[in-house]
Amino acid sequence: MNTEIKMVDPDRIDQEIIDHAGDILKKGGLVAFPTETVYGLGGDALNPDASRKIYAAKGRPSDNPLIVHIADMDHLYPIVTDVPEQAKRLAEAYWPGPLTMIFPKTDKVPLETSGGLPTVAVRMPVHPVAAALIRAEGGYIAAPSANTSGRPSPTVARHVIEDLSGRIDMIIDSGPVNIGLESTIVDFTEDIPVILRPGYINKEMLEEVLGEVKIDPGILDANANKGIRPKAPGMRYRHYAPRCDLAVVEGSREAVVATINGLTEAAHAEGKKVGVIATDETRSLYVADDIRDIGSRSDDEEIARHLFEVLRDFDTDGVEVAFSESFETPRMGMAIMNRLLKAAGHHIIRC
Ligand code: AMP
Ligand code: MG
User: Fold this and answer.
1) Closest CA relative to residue 36, chosen from 177, 190, 130
2) Does ligand 1 have an atom closer than 6 angstroms to the CB of 120?
3) pLDDT of residue 237
């Protein structure tokens, strides 16, 4: 299949291109598009064939549900059976934005889109190109991240091209995304709302609106949900992973640098190419082959924005073993560590 690639400036949207993309979606085709979190792979959320195509293009297990993207609040009510007061307040505070909410679904949403679940995940993105495309499509776009299943999510169009060129109808390129990590997911099907995936909207921001919020124990602990049926099937799968062996090293700054340099020398002795995820503060202290500065420790939004790109760069560079510093930062630390630990298969070295 020939994949059309079109640039759309978010500040001066070319409506002709958006309408063309909307037509592709209405006919059951697939279009990758920018959102504020990561690039999404869109299909008509109400068309089971389109959802099947999304799973096929990504190589995604079909029980891993898709998020339905809407652009107007009126479009929420036809696809969910109940919107609790608390969810309405959260929507008022953070929609449009990087927040996904889970509700019991109506029959309008095919089981192919919900991954076989009786619930549906809904998000209203704030990115102007995403909002324009949703409206052009008619209201409901199912979109997981636009990457091959298991690989780091795409934060620039080049990542989408690497993974999906030839497998989908169109890619809209609007430059790098703002946030770089997927949306925060809050489940409203329990008495107390539960964070299933951490993101830019952090626990404190949710608590400001909701009061008590629970956190799914699987977010940072690989073993927490063992034996329990996971709430979100996505939690079962290996995710965000580069091809190399990645380990996260935890400890004081000095100990981390010394440990990573020791491990680098050991890997060099085996003839391996070594990558390190460093920060502005430490980049000059390492001896590895491919030292990636992910940003400054004083700006964890910058760290979040660069994480997936750095993981992909290791693949491009043929890095075989990689070590990362740990980022338990105040604002986005939970979201960053959730992705980083999954990418590392929860391989942690404490020093
Ligand atoms: P992604 O496709 O990578 O953007 O992630 C979509 C994720 O949303 C899935 O992996 C699930 O974790 C989550 N999700 C979507 N729908 C549901 C649902 N009905 N219940 C629980 N989690 C969901
Ligand atoms: Mg994904």
Assistant:
1) 177
2) yes
3) 58
